């Protein structure tokens, strides 16, 4: 594979991912795009209310194309299992019946639930899958996104507050069952499901012998594997949340690294954020300049698992700068990049990136002003 191939891969990735807000409008069970250009194969499909996309390199384009299609098929199967909005999904079954009796869970889903609980404990409850009692009614009829704690308005009051907490969730390792200890509990996996799906896709591609690829789900969960030809690396362009045309930094990813991205929804005209509920204290709603966590406009979590990174990025929004710094110091192998608003400026802070990624700070400039770079480049 030549440097020309690498440049084609980079240009294609930049073209399809530069605008984080752009979403495919096709049906959720349709391959919306597949492109084969000189050993570079891309395939994408809408699932989990976002666009999943794989960019991979191989000398056997026919084999690679078929492999990517099979991997995307698996994402659709995961959606049927994990979506709280599909009536007969496994998760919906748990939410309907787990208070009345223990619900038997498929091994991989049981692992995911245990992983989510562990991250909830490690973040002091800033990530909590039992927040479903507060969030799922708000999400009915609209896309399941990566910010599982976002509320439009202040509904986190009274009885609903008591329905959030991992103490109400019982996971039995021996029987692999889930039991709710309080009526009204609901699990919401929207803050971790896409990262898990990205990890599953990455595993399938590696098992199939694909040795260079980049996969993302809705550009909020990502995984990069191996370097591009001529030692080029996969890169993420970090844009200004308030002025999206400005790129503030570039993150170079090491091989085998997952990235999760979460951000507050900002009304740029008024400079305000929509209300956010903190699972640790549902009455505490955030706005710009309030609690420390609310100053973090966007959080990138970087580690060896897209599953973990997805969940951690949600928690990092609420932990605030000092909380994220302490977390990365305590949990080696977890890094963070935070976009923090201070007055009229947006600063880029990073913690714990050694062995995971490198970050290069740029003077504020438009994307078009950035010189051509050697590796794959996706801007968020």
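^ structure tokens above, recovered residues below v
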């Amino acid at each position: 594979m030549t440097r020309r191939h690498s440049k084609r891969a980079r240009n294609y990735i930049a073209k399809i991912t530069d605008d984080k807000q752009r979403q495919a409008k096709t049906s959720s069970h349709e391959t919306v795009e597949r492109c084969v250009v000189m050993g570079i194969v891309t395939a994408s499909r809408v699932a989990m209310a976002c666009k999943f996309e794989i960019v991979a390199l191989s000398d056997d384009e026919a084999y690679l194309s078929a492999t990517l299609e099979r991997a995307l098929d698996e994402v659709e199967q995961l959606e049927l299992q994990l979506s709280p909005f599909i009536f007969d999904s496994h998760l919906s079954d748990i939410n309907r019946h787990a208070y009345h009796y223990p619900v038997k869970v498929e091994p991989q889903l049981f692992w995911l639930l245990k992983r989510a609980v562990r991250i909830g404990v490690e973040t002091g409850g800033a990530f909590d899958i039992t927040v479903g009692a507060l969030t799922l009614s708000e999400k009915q009829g609209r896309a399941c996104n990566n910010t599982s704690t976002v509320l439009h308005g202040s509904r986190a009051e009274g009885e609903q507050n008591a329905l959030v907490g991992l103490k109400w969730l019982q996971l039995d390792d021996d029987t692999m069952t889930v039991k709710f200890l309080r009526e009204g509990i609901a699990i919401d996996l929207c803050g971790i499901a896409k990262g898990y799906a990205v990890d599953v896709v990455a595993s399938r591609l590696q098992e199939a012998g694909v040795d260079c690829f980049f996969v993302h789900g809705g550009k909020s969960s990502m995984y990069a594997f191996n370097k591009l030809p001529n030692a080029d690396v996969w890169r993420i362009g970090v844009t200004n949340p308030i002025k999206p045309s400005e790129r503030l930094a570039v993150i170079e990813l090491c091989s085998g690294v997952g990235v999760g991205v979460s951000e507050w929804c900002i009304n740029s005209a008024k400079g305000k954020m929509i209300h956010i509920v903190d699972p640790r204290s549902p009455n505490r709603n955030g706005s710009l300049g309030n609690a420390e966590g609310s100053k973090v406009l966007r959080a990138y979590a970087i580690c060896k698992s897209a599953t973990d990174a997805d969940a951690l990025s949600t928690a990092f929004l609420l932990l605030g700068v000092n909380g994220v710094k302490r977390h990365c110091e305590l949990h080696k192998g977890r890094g963070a990049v935070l976009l923090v608003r201070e007055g009229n400026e947006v600063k880029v802070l990073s913690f714990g990136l050694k062995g995971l990624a490198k970050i290069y700070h740029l003077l504020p400039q438009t994307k078009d002003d950035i010189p051509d770079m050697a590796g794959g480049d996706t801007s968020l």
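Confidence is low (pLDDT under 50) at residues 11-29, 141-156, 285-291, 368-375.
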